[in-house]
Amino acid sequence: MLQVEDLHAGYGASEVLTGTTLTVKQGTLVALIGANGAGKTTTMRAISGGLKPSRGKVRLNGQEVQGLDASRIARLGLAHSPEGRKVFGPLSVEDNLLLGAYSRLPRFFGFQTRAQADLDRVYELFPKLKERTKQAAGTLSGGEQQMLAIGRALMARPKVMLLDEPSMGLAPVIVQEVFRTIRRLKEEGITLLLVEQFAKSALEVADYAYVMERGRIAVEGTPAELARNERVIAAYLG
């Protein structure tokens, strides 16, 4: 479903990704873990079109998408819930969610009607958002904003969903709630690539995992395999 091959990308003269290769099969959850600065978020941005790769391939459902605009990649079926949530603060919760569906619904007549089933699904996943439909997104708590960011991505009905650091800055009880939702999305068959600072939590939900170091994949395997790897234990699970 998602294939990344020998990906190189960076910022200005600084190359962050130096040959990243990974695969996310349909219906699986793949975790990408690593230290701060390893290149995880840069990988996500290069996949979703927020950053143009200098070299390498990104294939979404068999189609090469590297170098395309983010809006075009979104229309092809990829949704990105970014690091730091990036909600539109002045807009209401519901308007933020509707923006997530913009790439696939009619621009004028019928937009709201056809989006309603997706809104209902998001509100069923996150009841707190339903209580705050008209509230400005910028006034939500950090946990509620993360729920909103995930819900906004789901509104696109993506073929592949990228989740970048969904637990960042959240209280432990909210982190548990977010991971319960991630488990549910996995059970529903959504294809997921997860970047997560808490390696143990990521490996508990993943089908497969990659460890990134200095802009490329250093170790990969099933969660059980990585849990036995001394290098991974020492750096991330100790």
TrEMBL record:
Keyword Nucleotide-binding: yes
Coiled coil, from the record: none
Limits of the ABC transporter domain: 2-237
GO terms classed as biological process: L-amino acid transport
Gene Ontology MF terms: ATP binding; ATP hydrolysis activity; branched-chain amino acid transmembrane transporter activity
CDD domains, A to Z: ABC_TM1139_LivF_branched
Pfam family, one: ABC_tran
Keyword ATP-binding: yes
SMART domains according to UniProt: AAA (SM00382)
Keywords associated with the record: Amino-acid transport, ATP-binding, Nucleotide-binding, Transport
Domain of life: Bacteria
Family listed: Belongs to the ABC transporter superfamily.
Official protein name in the record: ABC transporter ATP-binding protein
